UniProtKB/TrEMBL annotation:
Gene3D superfamilies: 3.30.420.40. Binds 1 divalent metal cation per subunit. This is N(6)-L-threonylcarbamoyladenine synthase. Its cofactor is a divalent metal cation. It is an enzyme of class 2 (transferase). It catalyses: L-threonylcarbamoyladenylate + adenosine(37) in tRNA = N(6)-L-threonylcarbamoyladenosine(37) in tRNA + AMP + H(+). It comes from Stephanodiscus triporus. Its EC number is 2.3.1.234.
Length: 384
């Protein structure tokens, strides 16, 4: 089978990423420019500053990924770029650079759906790194014929949990996804960020990791919090009410301790709040996901779960969902990308492009737009 290599570019939010992936899943080279230090003082991403940082870093990140792969643009067989959803002014930086490179070097181009890229990371073969680049270039027809093995086959159920999204999807094939449940308000990652800010935690590296680390020193049953949407028998999520309950509990604790704000609570109190929030937030996931699992198991015979997105890097969530899968009457298989591949980076764009190209799907670079909102229930373009 002829192997081919794809350069992936990611600039949907606050990190600039690029990677070169071979079609067998080998990461040949990658680079990531973090913006954590830029946005930490503001407690969240400032779009204008993010765009400026992307423009400053994009060429260096791409060149570094190519250098680490021991490759040049002439050696790359195709280019994949995240085109939505995300911050439009940030998406445009990566998309424009990817379009320019595709047209200059006459390479096949793929406009990558950011959420599909997260999901498809669960299908990448066990991740390998190889510094011996310079694979023989493949023609477009050879690319289409190179499907290769995958870590999991369609159909499967996916739980997508990130800073901007919280969805359960039935995954039927490349570009074929049905939403089983979604959030009615905040995403799980967004709720983590807000709790981190409430407690005065450093959020430069993301609120999720900060709350996760703090919760290790807390009692998850110390603060009484309601599990959201107990009366609704669907598969949707809601975190706005839980976020409010945490704030009110923290404010009551402030009165008891005689301090003016949750940021000034004792470390032990903050840890208990963090642990209790995380416990209830994950219990909400277990209930809604368990219902979705029953549904697709009965209707489609699906017994495979992919857990993807930035929050999938949380060790406690992985442990609890693994137990949810293994404790069923007929156990499910669960696949989760390595933690560093759960967050946004160039490898996910590159691998999504590999998957699209392998089924003969690509886009016209000169016509590609970016989309701040990109409805996920609609199939991607299949223009080759």
């Amino acid at each position: 089978m002829k192997l081919f290599c794809v350069l992936g570019i990611e600039s949907s939010c606050d990190d600039t990423g690029a990677a070169v992936i071979r079609s067998d899943g080998t990461i040949l080279g990658e680079s990531l420019a973090s913006q954590h230090a830029i946005h930490e003082q503001f407690g969240g991403v400032v779009p204008g500053l993010a765009k400026d940082a992307h423009e400053e870093n994009i060429d260096r990140v791409i060149n570094t990924a190519l250098q680490r792969a021991n490759m040049s643009m002439e050696d790359v067989d195709a280019i994949g770029v995240t085109v939505g959803p995300g911050l439009e002014i940030c998406l445009r930086v990566g998309c424009n650079r990817g379009r320019e490179l595709a047209m200059k070097y006459n390479k096949p181009f793929v406009g990558v759906h950011h959420l599909e890229a997260h999901i498809l990371m669960a299908r990448i073969p066990p991740v390998k790194h190889d510094n011996n680049g310079g694979e023989q270039s493949a023609t477009y027809d050879e690319i289409v014929q190179s499907s290769g093995d995958r870590a999991m086959d369609f159909p499967f159920l996916a739980l997508l949990v990130s800073g901007g999204h919280c969805q359960i999807l039935k995954c039927l094939g490349i570009g074929r996804y049905a939403i089983v449940g979604g959030t009615l308000d905040d995403s799980l990652g967004e709720a983590f960020d807000k709790i981190a800010r409430l407690l005065g935690l450093p959020v430069g590296g993301g609120g999720g990791p900060a709350v996760e680390a703090l919760s290790l020193d807390g009692d998850p049953h110390s603060v009484a919090l309601p599990i959201p949407m107990q009366r609704r028998k669907d598969c949707d999520f809601s975190y706005a009410g839980l976020k409010t309950s945490v704030r009110m509990a923290a404010e009551r604790m402030c009165v008891e301790r005689g301090v003016e704000s949750p940021e000034r609570l004792r470390y032990e109190d903050k840890a208990n709040i963090a642990a209790s929030f995380q416990h209830v937030a994950f219990r909400h996931v277990e209930i809604r996901l368990g219902r979705a699992m029953e549904l697709v198991e009965k209707e489609d015979g699906i017994r495979t779960l992919a857990v993807v997105g930035g929050v999938a890097a949380n060790k406690e969530l992985r442990r609890r969902l693994n137990a949810l899968c293994s404790d069923r009457i007929e156990p499910w298989e669960m696949l989760v990308p390595p933690p560093r591949l759960c967050t946004d980076q160039g490898a996910m764009s590159a691998w999504a492009a590999v998957e699209r190209l392998s089924v003969g799907s690509s886009d016209l670079a000169e016509d590609q737009e970016v989309f701040a909102r990109y409805p996920f229930s609609v199939s991607l373009n299949d223009a080759s």
